[in-house]
Amino acid sequence: MDIPVSVVIATGDRPEKLANLLASLWAQKGRAAELVVVDASSDGRTRALCENSEDSAARVTYARAVERGAGAQRNQGVSLSSKPFVLFADDDVVMEPGCLGALYEALASDGGLGGASALITNQQYHPLGRISRRFFAWLNGGDMDDFSGRCIGPAVGFLSWDAPGRAEIAPIDWAPTTCVMYRREALPDPVFDPFFKAYSLVEDMALSLVVARRWRLANMRGARVYHDRVKGEIKCGARQFAAIEMVGRHYIMARVLGKDGAGDHLRFAAYQAFMLLSLLRTPLGRRILVPSLVGKLQALPRVIETAWRMGCY
To answer: What is the pTM of this model?
Structure first.
């Protein structure tokens, strides 16, 4: 059975990871009708992998990236796709059997659902400790039974949770692009905000929050993926990571969520400080504390400039 979905994958210099994703995609009971790979690799291995795809049921489109960066590459991929549903998948995920079909069935059976995300089996929400729970309840302006799948306060997002007894289709506020399917008509134009350039973070949060203005989002427990990444891996270095995270999260808080008051910025500053202090809990965190602090200090002028331009002050 062909599923009318365009799978869009942004990749670069990771053909081994991509090969695992494609193998899991071809093993799905329902076959994706279209696959678009936008490649920023420095060699031809990824192109060769796509051209020698073992799946003849799907139309495979390979394209060199016009602009490097997850958001830009995915935008390019969407422009080359044609199906009524679009699946974004990181090139380092592996789908469990039935994942693709479960996402499609959720959207096809509920016209008010704009997007459905897969459950990441090795990256999930964990119940908060007493101090953390009080802090996040303050950020949120109120406590919750749990914060899984929610986006609270200064654009703080929590992953979904595979807790026993939870609904198979759980409502969420935002969805990571690790593996998420959207209804094409629900996507904005451009899909990913051009504010997020090159190596970026939280561009997936920005997209899903925009979609959630008019559509509902859900996480599917029956659609499961494994995110094949090294725990604690920071591709761009701790200093740059901290700077990019701070700038991107502030943009989402002020521009996307419209939280631009003095109280919102107080919570934003408190969250940034809380995350720095949380690094003290682990040996790795303590090693990257200083460069992370430097990165946030370097990002501060840009955050202030962005806030000023938006009329926050």
So the answer is: 0.93
